[in-house]
């Protein structure tokens, strides 16, 4: 029998952290050895004998948490948002000094969401227009969502590789924000609404037709298979993996 994966959850009292604590506790090949929140001493992770860290904290804390894990030889599965190009580049160079450590940064752990983003990237080169609408609960502190940013990056790369020009847009005057934010040339619109959890639509338009790719997370349980897959895989994938699609066979 292979050794238990000894997991410390950071952000354990949060909406996602609490769900991860439950999922890890129920997994027969894992042991929850530490649950930390704001203000807790990260040394507790080492004292507890963790081999893996799950970070589900806040954008302002995640970088220091992951740095601590890497510097102490622990693998990290990260769901927290805020990992822009500069932060990922810094982490990548830190990991060069710790070649045995794996880190997964997953903007979205839900399998359906990962697939929808991949489908969107495949479809985007065949349509003149593409825009993204992400819809979340009103307690979310960041906009646009990490998932929308990642989807926009994948869509933009696919269109650039295929030589597709920018989506047509004749807007000359607008109120601030009317056209949303722009990520790699793709317009992203953020809705915050009581009752929602996490949802996204990619709208693709061509002459006389529209394709809509929508994914809905109705419950945070939807993210847990991805968290567990990340924990089971990350030690075998040294270095930085950005996106759970890196651990899946998506045939691209
Ligand atoms: N990758 C994915 O599939 C998903 C990612 N998320 C992301 O995960 C993060 C957490 O989301 P929620 O659970 O909804 O937020 P939340 O606000 O409910 O939980 C965050 C928790 O982190 C704690 N915290 C603050 N500073 C900390 C520190 N230095 N160390 C450890 N814990 C600290 C807070 O006290 C809070 O309990 C967000 O960035 C969110 O966008 C959320 C859902 C799915
Ligand atoms: O804060 C959330 O809730 C979510 N955050 C992630 C994101 O920003 O994409 C993942 C999911 O959308 C839920």
Automatic annotation (TrEMBL):
Q: What is its EC number?
A: 1.17.1.8
Any one cellular component term from GO for this entry? cytosol
Q: Which GO terms describe its molecular function?
A: 4-hydroxy-tetrahydrodipicolinate reductase; NAD binding; NADP binding; oxidoreductase activity, acting on CH or CH2 groups, NAD or NADP as acceptor
Q: Which residues form the active site?
A: 136, 140
Domain of life, per UniProt, equals: Bacteria
Q: Which reaction does it catalyse?
A: (S)-2,3,4,5-tetrahydrodipicolinate + NAD(+) + H2O = (2S,4S)-4-hydroxy-2,3,4,5-tetrahydrodipicolinate + NADH + H(+); (S)-2,3,4,5-tetrahydrodipicolinate + NADP(+) + H2O = (2S,4S)-4-hydroxy-2,3,4,5-tetrahydrodipicolinate + NADPH + H(+)
Chief site of localization: cytoplasm
Q: Which residues form the Dihydrodipicolinate reductase N-terminal domain?
A: 5-109
Among Pfam families, the record links this protein to: DapB_C, DapB_N
Q: Where in the cell is it found?
A: Cytoplasm
Entry keyword annotation includes Methyltransferase? no
Which residues are listed for (S)-2,3,4,5-tetrahydrodipicolinate binding in this entry? Answer: 137, 146-147
Q: What class of enzyme is it?
A: oxidoreductase
Which family does the entry's similarity section mention? Belongs to the DapB family.
* UniProt-listed PANTHER family: 4-HYDROXY-TETRAHYDRODIPICOLINATE REDUCTASE 1, CHLOROPLASTIC-RELATED (PTHR20836:SF0), DIHYDRODIPICOLINATE REDUCTASE (PTHR20836)
Q: Subunit structure of this entry?
A: Homotetramer.
Record function comment: Catalyzes the conversion of 4-hydroxy-tetrahydrodipicolinate (HTPA) to tetrahydrodipicolinate.
Question: What name does this protein carry?
Answer: 4-hydroxy-tetrahydrodipicolinate reductase
